[in-house]
Design a protein that fits this description.
The complex is a heterodimer of chains A (about 120) and B (about 110).
Chain A (H helix, E strand, L loop, with lengths): L2 E5 L3 E2 L5 E8 L7 E7 L6 E7 L4 E3 L7 E6 L4 E6 L8 E9 L6 E5 L3 E5 L2
Chain B lengths: L3 E4 L2 E4 L5 E7 L12 E6 L6 E5 L3 E2 L7 E6 L2 E6 L8 E7 L5 E2 L3 E5 L1
Parallel strand pairs in B: 2-11
Antiparallel strand pairs in B: 1-3, 3-8, 4-5, 4-9, 5-6, 7-8, 9-10, 9-11
The chains are: A mainly beta (about 120), B mainly beta (about 110).
Chain lengths: ~120, ~110
Protein backbone atom coordinates (compact mmCIF):
# COMPACT_ATOMS: atom_id res chain seq x y z
CA UNK A 1 0.00 0.00 0.00
CA UNK A 2 1.51 3.27 -1.13
CA UNK A 3 1.77 5.95 1.54
CA UNK A 4 2.96 9.55 1.52
CA UNK A 5 4.58 11.29 4.47
CA UNK A 6 5.43 14.97 4.68
CA UNK A 7 8.38 16.10 6.78
CA UNK A 8 10.14 19.35 7.56
CA UNK A 9 10.32 22.22 10.04
CA UNK A 10 7.06 23.20 11.67
CA UNK A 11 8.22 26.78 12.22
CA UNK A 12 9.80 29.11 9.70
CA UNK A 13 10.79 32.75 10.17
CA UNK A 14 9.38 35.46 7.92
CA UNK A 15 11.47 36.12 4.79
CA UNK A 16 13.13 32.70 5.04
CA UNK A 17 12.58 29.58 2.95
CA UNK A 18 10.06 26.87 3.75
CA UNK A 19 11.39 23.44 2.81
CA UNK A 20 9.35 20.24 2.94
CA UNK A 21 9.93 16.70 1.74
CA UNK A 22 7.40 14.03 0.88
CA UNK A 23 8.55 10.43 1.17
CA UNK A 24 6.79 7.84 -0.96
CA UNK A 25 6.73 4.40 0.64
CA UNK A 26 5.31 1.15 -0.67
CA UNK A 27 5.61 2.21 -4.28
CA UNK A 28 7.71 4.05 -6.83
CA UNK A 29 7.78 7.70 -7.70
CA UNK A 30 8.10 6.70 -11.36
CA UNK A 31 5.13 7.09 -13.63
CA UNK A 32 3.23 9.66 -11.61
CA UNK A 33 2.78 13.37 -11.00
CA UNK A 34 3.46 14.61 -7.48
CA UNK A 35 1.69 17.67 -6.13
CA UNK A 36 1.81 20.04 -3.20
CA UNK A 37 -1.45 21.52 -1.88
CA UNK A 38 -1.82 23.79 1.13
CA UNK A 39 -4.65 24.74 3.48
CA UNK A 40 -4.41 27.79 5.76
CA UNK A 41 -5.98 27.12 9.18
CA UNK A 42 -9.76 27.02 8.89
CA UNK A 43 -9.69 27.80 5.19
CA UNK A 44 -9.84 26.14 1.79
CA UNK A 45 -7.36 24.37 -0.44
CA UNK A 46 -4.76 25.90 -2.74
CA UNK A 47 -2.75 23.93 -5.28
CA UNK A 48 0.91 24.99 -5.18
CA UNK A 49 2.47 22.99 -7.99
CA UNK A 50 3.58 19.60 -9.17
CA UNK A 51 6.34 17.61 -10.76
CA UNK A 52 6.31 14.64 -13.11
CA UNK A 53 8.77 11.92 -12.22
CA UNK A 54 10.85 12.91 -15.26
CA UNK A 55 11.38 16.36 -13.70
CA UNK A 56 8.85 18.49 -15.57
CA UNK A 57 7.19 21.02 -13.29
CA UNK A 58 4.05 23.14 -13.32
CA UNK A 59 3.30 25.83 -10.76
CA UNK A 60 0.37 27.92 -9.62
CA UNK A 61 0.99 31.26 -11.35
CA UNK A 62 0.30 33.15 -8.11
CA UNK A 63 3.19 31.34 -6.38
CA UNK A 64 5.45 30.56 -9.30
CA UNK A 65 8.07 33.22 -8.52
CA UNK A 66 8.67 31.76 -5.05
CA UNK A 67 8.24 28.00 -5.55
CA UNK A 68 10.49 25.15 -6.61
CA UNK A 69 9.43 21.49 -6.62
CA UNK A 70 12.04 18.80 -7.14
CA UNK A 71 12.02 15.01 -7.19
CA UNK A 72 14.61 12.37 -6.47
CA UNK A 73 13.80 8.99 -7.98
CA UNK A 74 16.72 7.36 -6.16
CA UNK A 75 15.28 8.19 -2.74
CA UNK A 76 11.62 8.09 -3.74
CA UNK A 77 11.12 11.61 -2.43
CA UNK A 78 9.93 14.92 -3.77
CA UNK A 79 10.37 18.31 -2.18
CA UNK A 80 8.91 21.79 -1.95
CA UNK A 81 10.77 25.06 -1.48
CA UNK A 82 8.80 28.24 -0.88
CA UNK A 83 10.96 31.34 -0.61
CA UNK A 84 10.44 34.67 1.15
CA UNK A 85 7.61 33.41 3.32
CA UNK A 86 5.19 35.59 5.25
CA UNK A 87 2.48 34.86 7.79
CA UNK A 88 0.10 34.29 4.87
CA UNK A 89 2.05 31.12 4.07
CA UNK A 90 1.08 29.53 7.38
CA UNK A 91 -0.85 26.42 6.44
CA UNK A 92 -1.11 22.66 6.52
CA UNK A 93 0.93 21.47 3.55
CA UNK A 94 -0.16 18.25 1.85
CA UNK A 95 1.70 16.18 -0.66
CA UNK A 96 -0.36 14.16 -3.11
CA UNK A 97 -0.01 11.77 -6.01
CA UNK A 98 -1.86 12.64 -9.17
CA UNK A 99 -2.32 11.03 -12.53
CA UNK A 100 -3.55 12.31 -15.89
CA UNK A 101 -5.90 9.35 -16.22
CA UNK A 102 -8.75 8.82 -15.71
CA UNK A 103 -8.85 12.57 -15.27
CA UNK A 104 -6.54 15.56 -15.31
CA UNK A 105 -5.10 16.10 -11.84
CA UNK A 106 -6.68 12.94 -10.49
CA UNK A 107 -5.76 13.30 -6.80
CA UNK A 108 -5.73 9.60 -5.97
CA UNK A 109 -3.53 9.65 -2.87
CA UNK A 110 -2.77 12.22 -0.17
CA UNK A 111 -0.34 12.52 2.69
CA UNK A 112 -1.67 13.38 6.13
CA UNK A 113 -0.32 16.90 5.94
CA UNK A 114 2.09 18.91 8.05
CA UNK A 115 1.46 22.28 9.69
CA UNK A 116 3.99 24.97 8.94
CA UNK A 117 3.76 28.20 10.90
CA UNK A 118 5.54 31.34 9.74
CA UNK A 119 6.44 33.43 12.74
CA UNK A 120 9.44 35.16 14.28
CA UNK B 1 -7.60 31.69 -12.85
CA UNK B 2 -10.92 29.87 -12.83
CA UNK B 3 -12.84 30.83 -9.70
CA UNK B 4 -15.04 28.18 -8.12
CA UNK B 5 -18.00 29.31 -5.99
CA UNK B 6 -19.89 26.90 -3.76
CA UNK B 7 -23.29 27.24 -2.13
CA UNK B 8 -24.24 26.87 0.60
CA UNK B 9 -21.14 27.28 2.76
CA UNK B 10 -22.84 25.37 5.55
CA UNK B 11 -25.47 22.66 5.33
CA UNK B 12 -27.14 21.23 8.44
CA UNK B 13 -28.85 17.99 7.49
CA UNK B 14 -30.92 15.39 9.33
CA UNK B 15 -29.55 11.85 9.22
CA UNK B 16 -31.20 9.88 6.44
CA UNK B 17 -32.22 13.01 4.55
CA UNK B 18 -30.74 14.19 1.25
CA UNK B 19 -28.15 16.93 0.86
CA UNK B 20 -27.15 18.97 -2.13
CA UNK B 21 -24.16 21.24 -2.78
CA UNK B 22 -23.83 23.55 -5.75
CA UNK B 23 -20.65 24.69 -7.45
CA UNK B 24 -20.33 27.32 -10.14
CA UNK B 25 -17.21 28.10 -12.15
CA UNK B 26 -16.25 31.49 -13.57
CA UNK B 27 -15.47 29.91 -16.94
CA UNK B 28 -16.71 26.87 -18.80
CA UNK B 29 -14.91 23.74 -17.64
CA UNK B 30 -15.16 21.97 -20.98
CA UNK B 31 -11.60 21.15 -22.03
CA UNK B 32 -10.26 20.96 -25.57
CA UNK B 33 -10.62 17.15 -25.50
CA UNK B 34 -14.35 17.47 -24.86
CA UNK B 35 -14.16 16.36 -21.23
CA UNK B 36 -15.22 18.47 -18.26
CA UNK B 37 -12.72 18.25 -15.43
CA UNK B 38 -14.85 18.90 -12.38
CA UNK B 39 -14.17 16.87 -9.25
CA UNK B 40 -15.58 16.68 -5.75
CA UNK B 41 -13.45 16.04 -2.67
CA UNK B 42 -14.47 15.24 0.90
CA UNK B 43 -12.44 16.28 3.93
CA UNK B 44 -13.49 14.65 7.17
CA UNK B 45 -12.44 16.39 10.40
CA UNK B 46 -8.72 16.09 11.01
CA UNK B 47 -8.08 14.20 7.79
CA UNK B 48 -6.63 15.04 4.40
CA UNK B 49 -8.99 15.53 1.48
CA UNK B 50 -10.23 12.48 -0.37
CA UNK B 51 -11.34 12.38 -4.00
CA UNK B 52 -14.97 11.31 -4.32
CA UNK B 53 -16.01 12.12 -7.88
CA UNK B 54 -14.16 13.10 -11.05
CA UNK B 55 -15.26 14.32 -14.49
CA UNK B 56 -18.57 15.53 -13.06
CA UNK B 57 -20.17 12.20 -12.21
CA UNK B 58 -17.63 9.36 -11.96
CA UNK B 59 -17.33 7.95 -8.48
CA UNK B 60 -13.90 6.93 -7.27
CA UNK B 61 -13.57 3.26 -6.31
CA UNK B 62 -15.06 2.61 -2.89
CA UNK B 63 -17.27 5.69 -2.81
CA UNK B 64 -20.85 4.79 -1.81
CA UNK B 65 -23.48 5.15 -4.51
CA UNK B 66 -25.44 7.56 -2.32
CA UNK B 67 -22.99 10.16 -3.66
CA UNK B 68 -23.74 11.45 -7.14
CA UNK B 69 -22.51 14.32 -9.27
CA UNK B 70 -24.16 16.14 -12.12
CA UNK B 71 -23.95 19.31 -14.16
CA UNK B 72 -22.37 20.77 -17.24
CA UNK B 73 -20.47 23.83 -18.45
CA UNK B 74 -20.26 26.08 -15.40
CA UNK B 75 -22.86 24.65 -13.01
CA UNK B 76 -22.43 21.47 -11.03
CA UNK B 77 -24.07 19.66 -8.12
CA UNK B 78 -23.05 17.04 -5.59
CA UNK B 79 -25.94 15.13 -4.06
CA UNK B 80 -26.01 12.75 -1.15
CA UNK B 81 -29.21 10.73 -1.30
CA UNK B 82 -29.34 9.82 2.39
CA UNK B 83 -26.83 11.45 4.71
CA UNK B 84 -25.01 9.19 7.15
CA UNK B 85 -22.95 10.21 10.18
CA UNK B 86 -19.69 9.40 8.39
CA UNK B 87 -20.50 12.01 5.73
CA UNK B 88 -19.83 14.89 8.14
CA UNK B 89 -17.03 17.09 6.88
CA UNK B 90 -16.21 19.73 4.30
CA UNK B 91 -16.85 19.17 0.61
CA UNK B 92 -14.86 20.93 -2.10
CA UNK B 93 -15.42 21.17 -5.80
CA UNK B 94 -12.27 21.39 -7.86
CA UNK B 95 -11.67 22.17 -11.50
CA UNK B 96 -8.73 20.77 -13.44
CA UNK B 97 -9.50 22.23 -16.84
CA UNK B 98 -6.79 24.76 -16.09
CA UNK B 99 -4.38 24.45 -13.16
CA UNK B 100 -6.42 23.19 -10.19
CA UNK B 101 -8.56 25.60 -8.21
CA UNK B 102 -10.99 24.74 -5.46
CA UNK B 103 -14.27 26.07 -4.14
CA UNK B 104 -14.39 27.59 -0.67
CA UNK B 105 -15.81 24.39 0.79
CA UNK B 106 -19.23 23.45 2.15
CA UNK B 107 -19.44 22.21 5.70
CA UNK B 108 -21.90 19.34 6.06
CA UNK B 109 -23.10 18.84 9.60
CA UNK B 110 -25.84 16.87 11.28
CA UNK B 111 -28.78 18.75 12.75
Amino acid sequence: QVQLQESGPGLVKPSETLSLTCTVSGGSINGYFWSWVRQPPGRGLEWIGDIYYTGSTYYNPSLKSRVTVTADTSTNQFSLELRSVTAADTAVYYCARTTAQPSRWYFGLWGRGTLVTVSS
Amino acid sequence: DIVMTQTPLSSPVTLGQPASISCRSSHSLVYSDGNTYLSWLQQRPGQPPRLLIYKISNRMSGVPDRFSGSGAGTDFTLKISRVEAEDVGVYYCMQATQFPTFGQGTKLEIK
